[in-house]
Design goal:
Rna Polymerase Sigma Factor, Chain: A; Arc Repressor Mutant, subunit A; 2 domains; 9 helices
């Protein structure tokens, strides 16, 4: 059973990655924050009695289900309230602050040159745009495997599919990212 401090520390450590994953899926900062908060509340309410070792997979599955619920609600809302405002997409440009990604662990930008810093920032923006352009299942598999660092079996459990499907989605995502980023001059 996870203690309150362990649960709090777990959620604190998962917050940024989970937000980024939700943001990539829904492409709306406010919705991503709501999804993250709902997922954390569900974990604390329903699974606080689980051992700390089980929480990472449980949380990833809860986050996935909460995002699916959000998409279902949006689909229903758009079907019922069909005015132009409901169909306008959220502008994801600039909603997420890439400066959080470009700072070191102490929170400072470091001693690199301005040219290097701007180049790195532009590269991160290209990568983020390419990841957001992936189909939903490919994006989810890619983020779980390489962002959350889950293995194939854990990713399959979170996504509710076979391990073969995870491998296929990841392979296609990597090929698409490689092609897209390659055309922009970004090589591994």
């Amino acid at each position: 059973m996870a203690s309150d401090s362990e649960l709090s520390e777990f959620l604190k450590n998962m917050e940024k990655k989970a937000f980024k994953r939700a943001f990539y899926h829904v492409r709306n900062e406010d919705a991503a924050l709501d999804i993250l908060q709902d997922s954390m509340i569900k974990l604390c309410t329903n699974y606080a009695d689980k051992p700390i070792s089980e929480l990472p997979l449980l949380f990833q599955r809860i986050l996935s289900n909460t995002m699916l619920d959000w998409f279902r609600r949006q689909k229903t809302r758009n079907a019922v309230f069909s005015n132009l405002g409901d169909f306008s997409g959220a502008d994801a440009e600039g909603d997420f602050d890439l400066l959080e990604v470009t700072t070191d662990s102490s929170g400072e930008a470091g001693s690199e040159s301005a040219e290097d810093w701007v180049g790195r920032l532009q590269t991160l923006e290209h990568i983020e745009t390419a990841v957001m352009a992936l189909p939903a299942r490919q994006r989810e598999a890619f983020l779980l495997r390489y962002w959350e660092e889950l293995d194939v079996a854990e990713t399959a459990a979170v996504m509710g599919c076979s391990e073969g499907s995870v491998k296929t989605h990841c392979s296609r995502a990597i090929q698409a990212l490689s092609k897209t980023l390659g055309t922009q001059g970004i090589r591994p």
